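Hello,

Our lab assistant flagged a job as stuck in the queue for most of the afternoon. It eventually completed. Since we weren't sure the result was trustworthy after the delay, we are filing this so someone can double-check. Below is the sequence as submitted and the structure that was eventually returned. Let us know if re-running is recommended.
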Amino acid sequence: MARSAEITTPDLVVLALLAERPRHGYDVFAELERRDVRDWAAISKPQVYYSLRKLAERGLIEPGEGPAGSGPERQTWRLRDAGRRALAAGLDRDDWACHRQPPPFVTWLALSPHAAPGAAGRVVACRREFLLVEVARERATAADLARASDSPGVRAARLMVSLTVRQFELELTWLEEVEAALAPIPPVPPPASEPPRESAVRRVRPAI
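-- returned structure --
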C-alpha cells in the first residue's frame, strides 16, 4: 500500500514485530502465520527475508545478541532507533485511511452482464458459502480474543475481527439483493391472438 519504494507495507509489518522484541526471520513469519496475516496484510515468507535484508542495509535493524543459527532464517534481528522512527513515520500517512481496493467479487459483479447463462447464480452461491465459512472462523477468533489478556495488540485485533464479522454479515444480507437482481428475466410471452371482432357496421342485405 505504500506510495514510495522507501518503506513498503511488508517492511512495516516486519518492523512492527521487531518492535515487540528481537526475532529471527523464521520466527517473524511463524508469528505472522499465528496472527493470520493473510487476513490483514499481503506479505509472504520470501518478502519477510527480503525486508530483513533491506532494513539491515538501511541501518534500521541490526543483528541481535545471542548465537546465530545455521543460516539467515536463524539470524536474530533487533530494531534500532532509526527503525522505530521509520515505523512511526510509515504509520503516520493519510493513505492508510484513503485507500480503496476493490474486492474481486465487486470486479466480477461489474463484469457479470457478460457471464454465461447460469454463471451468476453459481458465483453468488459460491460467494455466500465462502462468507458463511469465514464469518464462522472470525467469530471463533473473536471468542478466543475475548478470553485473551488485554493489551494494545489484543484490543486492535478485537476491533479488526469485529469489523470483519460485521462486513461479512452485511454482505450476506446484501447477497439476497444481488441474487434477485441477477436472476434470469423470464421471456415475455407473445400476446394471445384475439378472435376476429364482429364489424360494428351492420351490413344491409341487398334487395332481390
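-- support follow-up --
The delay was a queue issue, not a problem with the job. The result is valid. The mean pLDDT is 87. The chain has eight helices and three strands.
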